[in-house]
């Protein structure tokens, strides 16, 4: 498979979608893919931020939750509260994305009881879930880590609602918090990228990761 | 005494019965125990009560009136009478009531009263027994009931929202918002939906809000509107291999319930009373398969269930009757020229199969061939009666031979070509002979006759010819499959030509043609002695007929598809011996082209020309107009000629004649022999028709001289004629005869008059002397009147023209001339005299010319001195106007008269009557004429 050139911050969504697919597909012929660059991660995060906002807007409307701004809570789940880039940098993002992937699976499962197969909301949730897994895959490539224990899954939410409306509302609030989280993360990465560009203009420095 | 005892014996039981009955009538059994509970899953109230033991012991039939009341409502919401016959067991009584309002929404109270059926008296009501609703609790926030519910489409539902104590429900609504009954502004909000319909969205969201905005002031609920599952009406089970049974069915319509609420399918077997261990999978159809073991007969019940209902479908079957074999596979074949043996394999063969082979022929026809298998692992069928070297497509499907259930799927289709064989049938051959110097050129044509089959891939043709009498070497030529004609040169001897088709296997039978001995003349070949007949085409082609003759074994018609081209694409068609007509059509036939057809009779490979016909598919108007080459013009006629105009095959129709058009004067066609013809622009022409196409000259007569005309000549065919576009313009010359006539009528009389005036005296002397000489009178010029030199007039022999009698001497004083000159009218003349005309013509010829001029009369007068003595025996008294004496002027009808408007030259009118009267003469011819008429 041809190597993808590094993406610039101004790359189009189509390019970043291509990146996502590139990383979502397992490597061929047993050869490991080269790790993504920070710019690629940054482009993917920007695309995911836009996607998260679109998903939330659609979900809120589709589930009739726009009334009284029920979803737009100021109390996001703990794992989405941040800071978006803590002392561990992007490395810490893996845990958040793993929890988000699990949350999206739960939301999708709930929505399957409410919608016919192939409904638009299910398609969008699947698409966002794929992007989250793509970012996780990118992060795994960027920060190789010991293999996780087989069957290890992130802990479930402590108080998973059982009533349908509560499930809908909880899912909506998670998507709202996720959209805000990704927006902040994208902004932080953009700011960091600008800083590093300014530094590189001042004098050459060895490339660093995170 | 005995009787008294009997009476007492009867009355005593009656008394006892009456007493007991009276006691029962007056006894009431009030409720001794009442308990009310609720079953929230079904929104149902459970009521339990009891009456006294004595009622049970008496096994009374009792009636219970049960009332249900809700909190805050003054009237009961339900009243029901419940009849029960008590038993001695003493068990309490039960009653259930399904509430249309969630029981959580408000408290419900029940009370009962009783009555023995035999009694007329109801007991007292029991105290109200209440089950509390959740409205009495002080919860952490408002609550909607039911909170989640699946509602059947078309049903009704009531929801409530219970607010906290001291709070009012301010908003209680749905999204999407159907028409609802909404009751709020209290602690409990109520909302009723009637005839719930499925909305475009998958579920309905219910909102409830108290009169505050904090998060705890809200509650939400979800309603699903769906349908119970449909009964699967195509549930059916079958097996492919007698080891596994598969049941299939359709999903039915959308229930609008998804995920966990979607329909669930379960299968069970009634004989074994066991559920079927299979997993249902649904895509287009649902199916479920399981291993059958040794069981052969099944009674399968399939149940489909969702939260709104349950439906079942059943199928009872013997597995051996439900065999749906797998499609045959691995087809292979053995080929011959007219036979194919097709083989195929089965899968899991454990039962006898009956197979059907479908053969698609090259023309698309489909044939089915049945076969039963006889081999263990494969089957075969031999398809015979096929055409050599032909592609067939075959496929097979099978079914159980013993108990047909249904055909398997078709196998893959196999395309097979049979082997080559000798060409079958003969070629259809024809010839065209052209006379050349020293012999003939013969163009030979061949084509595959309808019954001919090449039976091979590569076909070629072989042409041989030799003298019929023998003694010549056999000439031979071969041609590829692309050729269909060749030209050979032969002398004037009779030749035998043979043409065969050849493939990789063999030659076809030869087709033979005898070229007869030639005389060396072109006429022999062209058949010029035969009359060419004209024929007309139809929409379907050109119809040709001929008289069949018994000696011919076939007839041939040939023609050229493109008669004007060289080569002309000669075509021929062969007909059976009893044929006498044919409709010839060709895609090359176009209207306006003349096609020539030759009809031949064939006997023993020898042909002879029978008829020649020529015609058009459809005649068109002539391609061009006759060119008028000569115009001969006179003052009243024009002659047009167009001799060079062709009427042959170059025309687009048979020229039937010509039309000559002439523009009329003042748009009115008055020319003799013509017809009025109106052009599209409504202008009018005179049309002359010439019906002989060889008559190419025409004279238009009766034209006016010195006039401009426009003319046109058009040829017409069976297809009509073309529109008139061009005209010939002519100017007829001046008519000189008219000039001569003018000269005769005007100038000559003028000259005569002038001469007369010039020689007036001489003329007067000659023509009108003062005293005319009797010798000059014509009357006296006859021989019998001559007496020597004197002429003698016998009055008795005279025949008078007119008789006038003058019976008044005064008339001498009257001057008719003066009357004429003053009032020269006929009326006046008629009054003065009586006229009898010899005949009508004379009457018309005589004209009284009214004039005011004086006249000089030249007359032949006869004198009569004894008129009074001799009366004419033929005289008619009526002619004498005795009643009008004043007008008795004798007027004489002269034989000749001539007025000269000259007073000087003529004697005055006054003199003339005087002269007449004084001479007293009268025309004797007048007397005779009148007498003869009588």
Report on this model:
- The complex is a heterodimer of chains A (about 210) and B (about 950).
- With about 210 residues, chain A is an all-alpha fold.
- Chain A has a single domain (about 15-25, about 35-145, about 155-200), classed as Growth Hormone, Chain: A (Up-down Bundle), CATH 1.20.1250.
- Chain A is built from five helices and no strands.
- In chain A, helix 1 (about 15-25) packs across helix 4 (about 120-140), helix 2 runs antiparallel to helix 5 (about 165-200) and helix 3 (about 95-115) packs antiparallel against helix 4 (about 120-140).
- Chain A is globular.
- The two termini of chain A are about 25 Å apart.
- Residues about 1-30 of chain A have low confidence and may be disordered.
- Chain B has about 950 residues and is mainly beta.
- Among the domains of chain B are: about 30-130, Immunoglobulin-like; about 145-225, Immunoglobulin-like (Sandwich), CATH 2.60.40; about 235-320, Immunoglobulins (Immunoglobulin-like, Sandwich); about 330-420, Immunoglobulin-like (Sandwich), CATH 2.60.40.10; about 425-515, Immunoglobulins (Immunoglobulin-like); about 520-615, Immunoglobulins (Immunoglobulin-like), CATH 2.60.40.10; about 630-730, Sandwich (Immunoglobulin-like), CATH 2.60.40.10.
- In chain B, the strands form 14 sheets. Chain B has a seven-stranded mixed sheet with strand order 41-40-43-44-38-39-42, with no helix packed on it.
- Classes of the chains: A mainly alpha (about 210), B mainly beta (about 950).
- Chain B: This is Oncostatin-M-specific receptor subunit beta.
- Chain B: Keywords: Disulfide bond, Glycoprotein, Membrane, Receptor, Repeat, Signal, Transmembrane, Transmembrane helix.
- Chain B: It is found in: Membrane.
């Amino acid at each position: 498979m041809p190597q993808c050139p590094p993406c610039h911050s101004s790359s189009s969504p189509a390019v970043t979608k291509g990146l996502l697919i590139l990383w979502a597909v397992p490597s061929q012929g047993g050869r490991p893919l080269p790790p993504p660059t920070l710019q690629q991660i940054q482009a993917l995060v920007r695309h995911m931020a836009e996607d998260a906002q679109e998903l939330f807007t659609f979900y809120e409307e589709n589930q009739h939750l726009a009334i009284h701004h029920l979803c737009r809570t100021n109390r996001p789940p703990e794992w989405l509260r941040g800071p978006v880039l803590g002392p561990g940098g992007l490395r810490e993002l893996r845990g958040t994305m793993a929890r988000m992937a699990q949350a999206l699976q739960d939301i999708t499962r709930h929505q399957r009881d409410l919608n016919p197969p192939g409904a638009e909301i299910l398609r969008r949730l699947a698409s966002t879930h794929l992007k989250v897994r793509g970012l996780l895959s990118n992060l795994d490539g960027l920060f190789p880590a010991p293999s996780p224990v087989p069957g290890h899954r992130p802990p479930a939410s402590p108080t998973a609602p059982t009533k349908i409306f509560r499930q809908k509302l909880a899912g909506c609030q998670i998507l709202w918090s996720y959209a805000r989280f990704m927006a902040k993360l994208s902004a932080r990465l953009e700011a960091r990228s600008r800083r590093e560009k300014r530094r590189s203009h001042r004098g050459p420095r060895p490339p660093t990761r995170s | 005494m005995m009787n008294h005892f009997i009476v007492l014996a009867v009355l005593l039981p009656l008394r006892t019965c009456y007493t007991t009955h009276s006691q029962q009538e007056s006894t009431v059994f009030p409720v001794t125990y009442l308990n009310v509970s609720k079953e929230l899953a079904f929104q149902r109230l459970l009521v339990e009560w009891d009456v006294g033991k004595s009622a049970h012991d008496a096994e009374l039939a009792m009636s219970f009136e049960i009332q249900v009341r809700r909190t805050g409502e003054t009237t009961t919401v339900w009243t029901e009478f419940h009849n029960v016959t008590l038993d001695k067991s003493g068990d309490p009584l039960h009653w259930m009531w399904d509430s249309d309002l969630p029981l959580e929404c408000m408290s419900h109270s029940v009370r009962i009263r009783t009555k023995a059926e035999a009694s007329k008296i109801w007991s007292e009501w029991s105290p109200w027994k209440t089950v509390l609703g959740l409205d009495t609790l002080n919860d952490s926030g408002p609550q909607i009931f039911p909170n989640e519910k699946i509602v059947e489409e078309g049903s009704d539902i009531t929801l409530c929202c219970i607010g906290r104590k001291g709070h009012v429900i301010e908003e209680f609504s749905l999204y999407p918002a159907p028409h609802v009954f909404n009751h709020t502004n209290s602690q409990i909000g109520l909302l009723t939906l009637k005839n719930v319909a499925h909305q475009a969205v998958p579920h309905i969201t219910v909102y409830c809000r108290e009169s505050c905005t904090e998060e705890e002031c809200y509650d939400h609920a979800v309603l699903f509107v769906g349908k119970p599952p449909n009964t699967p009406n195509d549930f059916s089970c079958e097996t492919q291999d007698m080891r596994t049974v598969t049941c299939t069915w359709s999903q039915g319509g959308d229930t609008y319930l998804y995920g966990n609420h979607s329909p669930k399918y379960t299968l069970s077997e009634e004989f074994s009373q066991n559920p079927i261990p299979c997993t249902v999978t649904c895509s287009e159809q649902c199916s479920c398969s399981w291993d059958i073991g040794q069981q052969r007969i099944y009674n399968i019940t399939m149940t489909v269930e969702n939260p709104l209902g349950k439906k079942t479908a059943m199928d009872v079957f013997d597995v051996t009757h439900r065999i749906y074999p797998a499609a045959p596979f691995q087809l292979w074949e053995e080929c011959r020229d007219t036979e194919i043996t097709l083989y195929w394999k089965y899968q899991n063969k454990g039962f006898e199969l009956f197979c059907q082979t479908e053969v698609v022929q090259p023309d698309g026809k489909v044939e089915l061939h049945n076969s039963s298998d006889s081999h263990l692992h494969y089957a075969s069928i031999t398809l015979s009666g096929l055409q050599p070297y032909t592609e067939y497509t075959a496929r097979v499907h099978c079914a159980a031979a013993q108990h047909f259930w249904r055909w398997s799927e078709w196998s893959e289709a196999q395309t097979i070509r049979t082997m080559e064989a000798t060409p079958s049938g003969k070629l259809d051959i024809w010839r065209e002979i052209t006379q050349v110097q020293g012999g003939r050129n013969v163009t030979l044509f061949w084509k595959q006759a309808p019954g001919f089959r090449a039976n091979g891939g590569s076909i070629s043709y072989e042409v041989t010819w030799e003298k019929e009498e023998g003694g010549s070497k056999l000439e031979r030529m071969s041609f590829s499959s692309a050729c269909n004609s060749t030209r050979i040169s032969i002398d004037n001897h009779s030749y035998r030509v043979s043409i065969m088709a050849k493939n990789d296997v063999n030659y076809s039978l030869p087709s033979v043609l005898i070229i007869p001995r030639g005389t060396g003349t072109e006429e022999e070949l062209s058949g010029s002695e035969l009359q060419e007949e004209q024929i007309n085409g139809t929409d379907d082609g050109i119809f040709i007929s001929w008289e069949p003759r018994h000696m011919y074994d076939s007839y041939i018609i040939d023609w050229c598809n493109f008669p004007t081209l060289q080569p002309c694409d000669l075509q021929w068609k062969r007909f059976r011996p009893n044929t006498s007509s044919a409709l010839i059509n060709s895609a090359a036939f176009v209207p306006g082209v003349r096609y020539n057809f030759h009809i031949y009779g064939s006997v023993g490979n020898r042909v002879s020309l029978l008829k020649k016909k020529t015609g058009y598919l459809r005649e068109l108007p002539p391609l061009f107009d006759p060119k008028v080459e000569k115009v001969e013009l006179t003052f009243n006629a024009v002659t047009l000629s167009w001799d060079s105009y062709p009427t042959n095959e170059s025309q687009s129709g048979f020229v039937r004649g010509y039309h000559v058009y002439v523009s009329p004067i003042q748009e009115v066609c008055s020319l003799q022999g013509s017809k009025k013809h109106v052009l599209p622009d409504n202008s009018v022409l005179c049309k002359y028709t010439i019906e002989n196409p060889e008559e190419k000259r025409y004279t238009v007569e009766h034209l006016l001289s010195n006039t401009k005309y426009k003319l046109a000549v058009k040829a017409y065919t069976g297809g009509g004629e073309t529109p008139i576009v061009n005209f010939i313009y002519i100017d007829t010359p001046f008519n000189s005869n008219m000039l001569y006539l003018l000269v005769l009528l005007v100038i000559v009389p003028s000259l005569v008059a002038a001469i007369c005036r010039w020689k007036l005296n001489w003329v007067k002397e000659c023509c009108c002397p003062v005293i005319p000489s009797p010798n000059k009178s014509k009357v006296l010029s006859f021989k019998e009147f001559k007496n020597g030199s004197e002429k003698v007039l016998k009055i008795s022999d005279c025949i008078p023209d007119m008789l006038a009698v003058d019976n008044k001497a005064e008339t001498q004083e009257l001057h008719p001339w003066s009357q004429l000159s003053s009032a020269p009218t006929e009326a006046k003349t008629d009054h003065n005299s009586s006229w009898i005309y010899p005949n009508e013509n004379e009457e018309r010829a005589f004209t009284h010319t009214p004039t005011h001029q004086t006249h000089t009369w030249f007359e032949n007068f006869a004198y009569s001195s004894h008129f009074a003595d001799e009366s004419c025996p033929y005289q008619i008294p009526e002619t004498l106007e005795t009643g009008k004496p004043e007008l008795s002027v004798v007027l004489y009808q002269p034989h000749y008269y001539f007025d000269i408007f000259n007073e000087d030259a003529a004697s005055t009118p006054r003199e003339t009557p005087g002269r007449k009267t004084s001479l007293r003469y009268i025309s004797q011819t007048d007397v005779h004429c009148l007498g003869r008429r009588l």
